[in-house]
Design goal:
Two copies of one chain form a homodimer.
Chain A: E1 2-6, H1 15-27, E2 32-37, H2 39-48, E3 58-62, H3 76-79, H4 84-93, E4 99-102, H5 106-117, E5 127-129, E6 131-133, E7 138-142, H6 152-169, E8 176-180, H7 191-205, E9 210-215, H8 217-222, E10 227-229, H9 232-257, H10 261-269, H11 271-280, H12 283-286, E11 288-292, E12 298-301, H13 307-323, H14 325-331
Parallel strand pairs in A: 1-2, 1-4, 2-3, 4-12, 7-10, 8-9, 8-10
Antiparallel strand pairs in A: 5-11, 6-7, 11-12
Helix pairs in contact in A: 1-13, 4-5, 6-7
């Protein structure tokens, strides 16, 4: 198993991806890592870390260009053919790596993955599928921003993608799939939601997925389902609201604990619990977001990833690769299609 | 000033609305209250509270029917003409009350308000406009579920409605209006968002509103704007996610504090701060959600409203009535219209 890491992507590149690779090598000794990016920059990080040589199982693939924020997402991979992003994706496409991790631009990674590595045949769109914390554990939310406008077929396919990911990669038996909506009843929401509801109910009837109906965001946070199907717009709103609410409440909590000597003592008494509390909303603990629907494992690590986040993203890439989920989806693709003559579209 | 209260709506009716009315009468002595509902039920609550007579300034308007969950939202007000909801709305329409507060079905209240009290002339849709807590204060979010599918004109009108509400009722000078989107740049989001962005920028250019651009949900939670404009679907997702995240984090916090003797001592040391912390997410502190765009004040109190929540909702109704916001909107309605010949629709 060999995972390529974009050494130039993210707020703390190249140090965080390089250190993340070294950490991953320690934690997962059967996984080889390839750092993709400017060799001199990578070597300079290694020198600063006091390592003159790369450890066995970690190598460098030189790539001279870097995709920048100013580059247009849709075309960056093409206009910078020797960028770490393009070189890494091509390695995956060509079988030189089993997966790719990048903390660079989401849009550029998605466009590059779609056009170089390609989607699983028959899938209309790839989806960003992060996990988020719930009151009882965690859930997968997709799509989360790759597709602002969705059709019924996209959402149907997201339901399958999320369900397979949840069972094959996260190990949840018979994952409960919910449709993000503004009410629980079948007829709630807009035309997109009402038709999707019917399609998901049919898939449930066939035993393909376990559809538990419409879910409101509040209930989703309480943990009533394992997979939440959403269009990329409202899914992104939900994800960003969770992040914002966590940040806001964390700030309030901190202010409360630092108020005076008494509250500081309280903070001391709670330190173990506070650490766990903080972990719940720490994106570094999750690692990254799988780009579901791409034919090979591509993981988007979040922009502010530290070494631990890169290490966790590598673990994710390995888990996706080992799960064989892409093969399962390809095999079952006919179940996820809407016959366009059937519904007159 | 006279406010009608639906005595039969909400999880704790009739006791919560009746007690809320008595509390409001104490707190706002220049406001008269009319309890609308089954007189015998209302009198029975009063007897249980040890009050044989109604205090001066609180009266009962008998209404024999009750809108139930099973009733269809769109037609309930019509099919039950002697319901507390219909009688209360008619009182507002006929000038017998200056505002109406109900914790009953949102859909039934919205349909009844739209068809009995009517929208301000020229407005395409009314919007649910709750306030939510941010890191720096609070913000108004609209629409939040009344309109799952929106046009550019609806969103443009919501921006004006929210801006007027925020300045005239909440007292924010030159409120900052943001468009809820999945990225900050002008071209982000779907076609609806891109066209709305242009319209809002034009309104800003004319000095009608203060448009600060696209905002992501995370930044909105941090308090970067005072008014957030959203379609009813994603607005509802944001609101419910805030509620869910607050509930989930509250639960985690509670578990952390009850863990052992040490953490219980910490809880004791923090009790003042914890009370404030809890208040931030307590919907009873807010009162209710204004139905903006209706020609007279109609406030939806949340379903689980207690007496304090009803009292706060009465205050809101009074504030909306005194603000004269409906007149301002009616006067400026031409600014909020999109000429359909102009954009070829």
């Amino acid at each position: 198993m060999k995972i390529a890491i974009d050494a130039m992507g993210g707020d703390f590149a190249p140090s965080a991806p390089v250190e993340g690779a070294l950490l991953a090598r320690e934690r997962y000794p059967d996984v080889e890592l390839v750092l993709v990016g400017r060799e001199e920059d990578i070597r300079s990080v290694l020198r600063e870390a006091g390592k003159s040589d790369l450890p066995a199982g970690v190598s460098i693939r030189n790539a001279t260009e870097v995709v920048e924020i100013a580059d247009e997402s849709a075309t960056a991979f093409k206009k910078k053919p020797d960028s770490s992003l393009t070189v890494g994706l091509n390695m995956v496409r060509d079988g030189e790596a089993d997966g790719f991790v990048s903390a660079g631009s989401t849009g550029a990674l998605l466009a590059g993955a779609t056009l170089l590595v390609k989607r699983i045949r028959g899938l209309r769109r790839a989806a960003l599928a992060p996990t988020f914390p719930t009151a009882t554990g965690k859930a997968v939310l997709l799509d989360c921003g790759a597709n602002a406008e969705c059709t019924v077929e996209y959402l149907l396919q997201f339901a399958y993608l999320g369900s397979y990911y949840c069972s094959k990669v996260l190990g949840v038996e018979k994952p409960r799939v919910g449709l993000l909506n503004i009410g629980a009843e079948e007829e709630k929401g807009d035309a997109l939601r009402r038709e999707t509801y019917q399609r998901l109910a049919e898939a449930n009837g066939r035993g393909d997925i376990r559809f538990v109906g419409n879910v409101e965001a509040k209930e989703a946070m309480m943990g009533v389902c394992d997979v939440i199907v959403a269009d990329g717009f409202s899914g992104n709103v939900m994800l960003k609201t969770i992040e914002g609410a966590g940040k806001m409440l964390g700030g309030l909590l901190k202010a409360m604990l630092l108020k005076n000597a008494g509250t500081k003592l309280a903070a001391l008494l709670l330190r173990g619990g506070l650490r766990d509390f903080k972990k719940v909303f720490d994106p570094n603990e999750v690692g990254g977001t799988a780009l579901l629907g791409i034919s090979k494992p591509v993981i988007k690590a979040h922009g502010s990833s530290n070494a631990l986040a890169f290490c966790n993203a590598v673990r994710q890439a390995v888990e996706v690769a080992r799960s064989g989920i892409a093969d399962d989806i390809a095999r079952d693709i006919d179940k996820m299609r809407i016959d366009r003559t059937e519904d007159g579209k």
